[in-house]
Amino acid sequence: MRTFKQHYNVLLEFFDAIDGAVKHIDHLEENILNKGKQGVIEAINQIESSISYFVDESDYKISTKFDGAPAIVAGIDTNGKFFVASKSAFAKNPKINYTEQDIIDNHGTGGLADKLKLALRYLPSLNLKGIYQMDYMFDPQMKQIETPKTIDGVKNENQFLTFTPNTIKYAVTENSPYGNQINKAKIGVAIHIEYMVQNGILKVKKYTSSPEEFSPSNTVFVFNVLANKPKNAKSSFSKILLKDVKKKKSQVLKLAEKVDFSSLDDYTALLKTYINSEIRAGRFLEDTSISAEEFVNWISSKFEKDIEKLKSEKGKAKKTEQMKNTLSTLKKLKPSIKNAFEITKIIANLKNNLIKIFNEITQNDLLGTYLEEAPGEWQTTAPEGFALSKVTDDGAQITKLVDREEFSRANFGTGKPTSPATKEDQESYITNPPIFNRGEGTRLRKNVSTFGEMVEILKEFEDVKNYKTVVIYPGRFHPFHKGHASVYNALKEKFPTADVYIATSEKTDPENHLLSLMRK
Predict the structure, then answer these.
(1) What are phi and psi of 260, to 5 degrees?
(2) How far apart are CA 251 and CA 343, in angstroms?
(3) First to last CA, the chain
(4) Are the CB atoms for 412 and 404 separated by under 8 Å?
(5) Contacts 24+ apart (CB under 8 A), 505-509
(6) What average pLDDT values come out for the chain (520 residues) when binned by 10 residues?
(7) Would you list the DSSP string of 144-162?
(8) Considering only CA atoms, which of 333, 72, 364, 356 is closest in space to residue 226?
(9) What whole-number distance in Å separates Cα of residue 488 and Cα of residue 496?
(10) Measured distance CA(412)–CA(213) in Å, rounded
(11) Three-class SS state of 246
């Protein structure tokens, strides 16, 4: 059995340093804030390259994002030993597993540990030559035979083999080529990233992998992540897209000349966070003048909350002066912020139009993707998105092509304000409370033991020494009802020595947020 320290030494022995481990990939339009005018040019070039991928030759590869969970890192270390890990392989105290006992010691039992054991048992059959990162898609416990009552509102009598690793339900007919192979396989994975160790440093070798790169296996089904090129793609498809891109290209380059990107550098992270807050609220830079104004107000609100937390008058005075200077700077930068938002909006709209067309022309007839809106009621949905990548002399590059508003609606239940929740809505909320799952923090849309899922996540921290456990249960709580209470009581029972907190917002409005913080 290896301790964390010993595992870490083993990891450092064959990596030395982790330079290119992929934990987060930026959206295409975020490059505008990340890189300024150069980011604007790159974003346009990447859109044009995406079109070229389908209609001509291109240095880029486009891969479909699979909605799997958890992320698995597996392969051969430089000592020739096979290992599996979660993304904790890239943590300061990594959990590297060479044996089932390692998995038990590092991850306990159930949930993630069971999936890692299956990965350890079956992935060697692929004869992996390097180190790979992949999405875990299914195992025997996750596969089900289902006959939905309706699909897209139409009565259905067909039977499907399904698996729902995260939010999207994947479905195949049992007697199809995919169905037969998936039915026989013990696990399914979508392998995205291949790493290499170069001069002792772990780096990304490439962001796409094809099933043909691995040995055939009866126990592991490898999904093809590469987007399929359509037949006769050189028709009107490219002309429509390129015409729109050329029109917008000159527009965004003119706007870029009006943006003081160097002065915005200090606020890049905050600008990106603010945009995400708009998306989760069901809007996306609808009026960039208003958004620029609201961004300044949002910064002011953050300062005010920080000041309230300070105890000394000296500290409050210092923070107040900092707020005053920051707000003065941002008010001068408001035209730049507005134009940066406008460029972001234009690029995002171009990207979303591209995604809609890609969804049509790359549709996989063998693998259906659905959201279960209600028990037995399936709604066809597009894949989670695409990733645009290429390998250059400087290394591998990747950008996400995801419709962020659609992703937010599917995963966070956001959208335009709607009527207050009905009793039926509250009951479904009781049986399916919102939690942070293994992805990027989403509400599960499937009938699973969600409290158990939460416990499995928290188990990840159990073997850390000398810590204080804090459990946070966030929610809108409008109103706080018996379902919320049952989750809170279960958390208190499961973690008797922990500090269990409920987190909610102070937001109020006369239509959808009637209750004040104190009333909640």
Answers:
(1) -85, 80
(2) 9
(3) 49
(4) no
(5) 505/476
(6) 45 45 70 89 86 73 88 90 88 87 92 95 95 94 95 92 93 88 95 82 82 94 82 58 79 92 92 89 89 94 91 92 95 95 92 80 78 92 83 77 73 41 32 32 37 53 61 82 79 80 77 68
(7) EEE--SEETTEE----EEE
(8) 364
(9) 12
(10) 36
(11) helix
Which pLDDT score, from 0 to 100, does residue 172 have?
93
Looking at residue 334, what is its pLDDT?
Answer: 95
- Give the Cβ contact number of residue 487 at 10 Å: 20
**Helix (H) and strand (E) counts for the chain?**
16, 19
Token pair in block for residue 341: 């938002």
Q: Give yes or no for a contact between 187 and 138, defined as CB atoms under 8 angstroms apart.
A: yes
Q: Beta partners for 188? A: 138, 221
The alpha carbon of 253 is separated from its chain's Cα centroid by a whole number of angstroms, namely: 30
Please give the DSSP secondary-structure letter assigned to residue 323.
Answer: H
The model's pTM is: 0.66
Q: Which long-range contacts (CB under 8 A, 24 or more apart) does 261-270 make?
A: 261/36, 261/37, 261/336, 261/340, 262/36, 263/329, 263/333, 263/336, 264/33, 264/36, 264/333, 264/336, 264/337, 264/340, 265/36, 267/330, 267/333, 268/33, 268/34, 270/295, 270/299
The residue extents of the domains of the chain are 420-503
Residues near 480 by beta carbon (within 8 Å), at least 6 away in sequence: 520
Residue 74 CB contacts under 8 Å (≥ 6 apart), including other chains: 82, 83, 84, 85, 119, 123, 128, 131, 132, 134
Closest residue by Cα to residue 474 from 447, 441, 448: 441
- The full DSSP string for 360-406 is HHT--TTSEEEEEEETTEEEE---SEEEEEEEETTEEEEEEE--HHH
Would the CA dihedral through 118, 120, 121, 125 be positive or negative?
Answer: positive
User: If residue 15 lies in a helix (H) or strand (E), which one and from where to where?
Assistant: helix 4-15
Parallel, antiparallel, or unpaired for β 17-18 and 201-206?
Answer: parallel
CA distance 207 to 224: 13
Q: Please tell me the distance from the alpha carbon of residue 223 to that of residue 373, in angstroms, as a whole number.
A: 25
Q: What dihedral do alpha carbons 339, 341, 346, 352 form, nearest 10°?
A: 170
Decide if 65 contacts 22 (C-beta within 8 A).
Answer: no
**480 vs 381: CA distance, rounded Å:** 32
- Are the beta carbons of 85 and 77 closer than 8 angstroms? no
Query: Are 277 and 298 spatial neighbours (Cβ–Cβ below 8 Å)?
Result: yes
Residue whose structure tokens are 């919320």: 484
Q: How far apart are CA 436 and CA 493, in angstroms?
A: 19
Decide: 141 and 188 in contact? Cβ < 8 Å.
no
Nearest to 273 by CA among 302, 237, 234, 232: 302
Residue type at 465 in one-letter notation: K
Q: What is the number of alpha carbons within 13 Å of residue 209 lying toward its C-beta?
A: 24
Work out the widest C-alpha separation in the chain, in whole angstroms.
Answer: 73
